[in-house]
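Lab notebook, bench 4. The sequencing result for the construct came back, and we need a structural model before the next group meeting so we can plan mutations. Quick request posted to the team channel:

Model the 3D structure of this chain.
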Amino acid sequence: MCGRFFLDAKAGDIIEHYKAPPPDLFSARYNIAPTTPVLALSGAKFDLYRWGLIPSWAKDVTMGNRMFNARAETVAEKPSFRNAYKRRRCLVPANGFYEWRLESGRKQPYCCHLGQQLFSMAGIWEHWQDAEGNQIQSCALITTEARGAMTELHQRMPVYIAPADYAAWLDCANDKIDAADRLLRDTAPDYEYYAVNTSVSNSRNEGPDLIKPLEE
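Done. Here's the predicted structure in token form:
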């Protein structure tokens, strides 16, 4: 499961990494939570998506509140996710994400990262429209079984997409689904992590102090 992450890259860093500019409303955020807007790249264009995928057939937006993660093992089969996985894949930029571990009777948050560098998590997205014609673009992150050091912290972790694989992941042509399946199976980055203050557990808290290592 991945229910919180952060993105503190500057717009220039994002342009250099992805060769695409973020929207004007983009800003660094340190406590990105489900149901809030997240930056995602689909094709060659960035946009903001509601985090929590709303299937096109959903009766209302609340269905997306609990659908912020899709499991790599079942994303191609689940009715809520399979159409988006086949036709609408995206990259979600991050500098890290948070996970919690029960320690001494309380949940201790940890900041998980790849050397604090900008990286991409695998995502899928969907269109939804209400009875009045209002449209919402929403997305979900894809997770897989934890590997490496992450197995000591949590059972799941986000699927990482390497820069060399961006085009393959985003290519939703019918004959390219095997390449996407391979990326879900084979990608295994060695995430690092360190403890942070429990203030990150409240999604209303924001700011760079949230990613500072917890003082011993």
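The domain at 5-96+118-189 is CATH 3.90.1680.10 (hypothetical protein yedk fold).
Will bring this to the meeting.
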